[in-house]
Amino acid sequence: MNKNNYKYKLLLIEDEDNIRNGLKLNLKDEGFDVKDYKSAEDFFNEEVHFLENFPYDLAIIDVMLPGKIDGLKITKQIKARWDIPVIILTARNRLENKLEAFEIGVDDYITKPFELEELIARIKVKLKKKKFHRIKIGNSVVDFHKQEILKLNTNEIIKLTNKESGILYLLYENKGKPVSRDQILDKLWYGEYPTNRTIDNFILRLRKFLEEDPSNPKYIITRHSKGYELIDSIEVVKDELL
């Protein structure tokens, strides 16, 4: 499925056992790595740190879930923190239901009953549209899927933490524009209250990984009173993902 042998990780939240089990089996046959849950509560109970660590490339979520949290509520929380495609599965087919879902950022809306082949095709289309998974900064290639940096001149591989990868991803999304410390804290430290100095220390580490001279950075620039900025001329490393 993938030239780099990367297995796309899919999140599946569906309370109907026959649908969930059938989907999981068929998606695994397609080469995907699937983690499934029967309810939003089951997901939250097991993945308590999902706001800071969300290792999925795409989510498939039913709207009508048991418990107090329905599919739209969990989708809203995911989309507020993570830039991944979300496909909604539902028996609701009225226009107002679809508009409500799209207003919170849903990427696709599939009504039950549905054809398995169509869902798989839509999943592949959404994954193909992912903007990038690797970028080149100077003599380094950043792989966001693997959360690592490859130093091209030495072949050294540097593993990134979730926060390091998240900050770099956020800077890339806003390349050419300064990102404030508060923006980084709001996006990646949800529910935690570190100091601004925490962000500065992470930036220092990223500069050590990426800059030829960390004390005189060329790629991650400080914009005084505004934040940090990744220069605009960053190259995307393109290859066939599916």
Structure commentary:
The chain has 242 residues and is an alpha/beta fold. The chain has 2 domains: 9-128, Response regulator (Rossmann fold), CATH 3.40.50.2300; 134-236, Arc Repressor Mutant, subunit A (Orthogonal Bundle). The protein has helices spanning 17-29, 40-46, 71-81, 95-103, 116-128, 162-173, 181-188, 196-210; strands at 9-13, 33-37, 58-62, 86-90, 108-111, 134-137, 140-143, 148-151, 157-159, 220-223, 227-230, 235-236. A hairpin with a 3-residue loop joins strand 10 and strand 11 (227-230). It is elongated and about 60 Å long. The mean pLDDT is 85.
Report the CATH C-level class of the largest domain.
Alpha Beta
Overall radius of gyration: 19 Å
Give the second-level CATH assignment, the architecture of the largest domain: 3-Layer(aba) Sandwich
Question: Taking all residues together, what is the mean pLDDT?
Answer: 85
Total helical elements:
8
Order of helices and strands: EHEHEHEHEHEEEEHHHEEE
Helix content: 25-40%
Q: Please provide the count of β strands.
A: 12
Principal-axes geometry comes out as elongated
Count of separate structural domains: 2
> How far is it from the N-terminal to the C-terminal residue, by CA?
5 Å
CATH topology of the largest domain: Rossmann fold
Oligomer state equals single chain
Low-pLDDT runs of 5+ residues are: none
CATH superfamily of the largest domain: Response regulator
